[in-house]
Design brief:
By secondary structure, the protein is mostly helical. The protein has seven helices and no strands.
Length: 150
């Protein structure tokens, strides 16, 4: 159990963040749901936001409870990568990226990018850690306290 504790902690925070963010897309649609997706410039925000929210809730719960956590982490990777490209890449570039708007900040570039993207990057690497911990074998279910082996 002691050896598994670091991975359990990673799964808890990654799973909780995705679960809560998914819930917030429904609970606060004007702030974090369809209205935000529209403001960012994503297509079909009224359909995309609830879909992403549902995927985040299911995937977050799966990671949190280690129920096909590798599959869920694999499913979360495109979501977090799109979030990085759509919302954080313009900060890195200092200009609008295609249809994706640039938020107003005091400065742009690498430092601003890393500051604004810190949670997204942690979630990205957390998903990769969960995926690696699953043995990169998709479709395996383990007990919540197991980190390695069956």
């Amino acid at each position: 159990m002691r050896r598994d504790l670091p991975m359990i902690l990673v799964r808890i925070i990654v799973g909780l963040v995705f679960l809560v963010e998914g819930i917030l897309k429904f609970a606060r649609p004007n702030e974090l749901g369809a209205a935000r997706f529209a403001a960012i410039g994503l297509p079909f925000p009224h359909l995309l936001a609830p879909f992403v929210g549902a995927v985040e809730m299911v995937g977050g719960a799966a990671i949190l409870f280690n129920f096909f956590a590798g599959d869920a982490a694999l499913l979360m990777l495109p979501i977090i990568l799109v979030a990085l490209v759509v919302t954080k890449a313009p900060i890195l570039l200092g200009r609008q990226l295609g249809p994706f708007t640039l938020i107003t900040l005091p400065s742009y570039g690498w430092l601003s990018f890393f500051h604004e993207a810190r949670v997204d990057l942690c979630m990205l690497f957390g998903c990769v850690a969960v995926l690696i911990d699953s043995g990169l074998q998709v479709g395996r279910k383990r007990r919540w306290y197991q980190s390695r082996g069956l």
